[in-house]
Design brief:
This protein is mainly alpha-helical and 80 residues long. It is 85% helix and 0% strand. It has two helices and no strands. Helix 1 packs antiparallel against helix 2. The protein is rod-shaped. It starts with a helix and ends with a helix.
Length: 80
């Protein structure tokens, strides 16, 4: 498996885990309004949105690096 493919799979798994945490916290806040502050949903949304967006941005940069490394590895294989 290429480095690009491994990075995509890893990013999707981590993003799905973060989305699951976000979903759980949002449901917790909705189900227990007496146990959370009034701005709980906004804080959770901003925090988790920032985490997911930041990871996606870093993943994009890492994808470009992995593509370059895959190209270099392919060129090394073809050289005698």
């Amino acid at each position: 498996m290429s480095k690009k493919a491994r990075l995509i799979v890893t990013t999707v798994i981590i993003e799905a885990a973060l989305a699951g945490i976000w979903w759980h916290l949002a449901r917790f806040g909705t189900a227990n309004p007496d146990r959370v502050t009034s701005d709980f949903q906004a804080v959770v949304g901003q925090t988790m949105g920032m985490a997911i967006g930041g990871l996606l941005g870093i993943g994009f940069i890492l994808f470009l690096v992995a593509a370059r490394n895959d190209r270099k590895a392919a060129q090394e294989k073809t050289r005698p």
